[in-house]
Design brief:
Length: 126
């Protein structure tokens, strides 16, 4: 995270871990890792990224990343629910019309799989 912060362009920008989960992403029998990272800067809002790390039996290696979007007016939070059968299942909390600022009532699911070194979005039920 320190290295990511050094590479960011804003002086007070930083990355923080929003969630992490272990599970076999590439079906090799080793638990890999999925990590949600929030990027915070001096500008309002948060940008969020999903990263996949493969475990080779000795160490974790960054394998893929994808931009999930800005957590602004509509999407308020995101969490990794689980890794199941190579699929990373995410839960997004979304503000619905009429919701108060504090209390989003909408839920949306996204799912990603690791294919050819990239995180590809899939339907959560497939």
């Amino acid at each position: 995270l320190r290295r990511l912060a050094q590479l960011s362009s804003a002086a007070d920008a930083r990355f923080e871990i929003a969630g992490a989960e272990l599970g076999d992403l590439d079906r090799d029998g080793n638990d890999d890792a999925a990590v949600l990272l929030n990027y915070l800067s001096d500008r309002p809002g948060i940008a969020q990224f999903l990263m996949a790390y493969r475990f080779d039996g000795d160490s974790f290696h960054p394998t893929a990343k994808t931009y999930l979007g800005g957590l602004g007016a509509d999407v308020l939070a995101s969490d990794i629910e689980r890794i199941d059968d190579g699929t990373i299942e995410l839960l997004l909390q979304m503000r619905q019309q009429g919701d108060q600022e504090c209390c989003p009532s909408g839920r949306h699911r996204r799912a990603y799989v690791l294919e050819d070194g990239a995180l590809i979005e899939r339907r959560p039920d497939s």
